[in-house]
Amino acid sequence: MEIKNMMVIGAGQMGSGIAQVVAQAGIKVFLQDVKDDFLNRGLGRIRSNLDRQVQKGRMSEEEKEVILHRIELTTDVADGKEVDMVIEAAVENMEVKKNIFTRLDDITPEHAILATNTSSLPITEIAAVTKRPEKVIGMHFMNPVPVMKLVEIIRGLATTDEVYQVVHDLALKLEKTPVEVNDFPGFVSNRVLMPMINEAIYTVYEGVASPEDVDQVMKLGMNHPMGPLQLADFIGLDTCLYIMETLHEGFGDDKYRPCPLLRKYVKAGWLGKKSGRGFYRYDQ
Ligand code: NAI
Question: What positions does the domain 3-hydroxyacyl-CoA dehydrogenase C-terminal occupy (predicted)?
Answer without folding.
Answer: 186-282
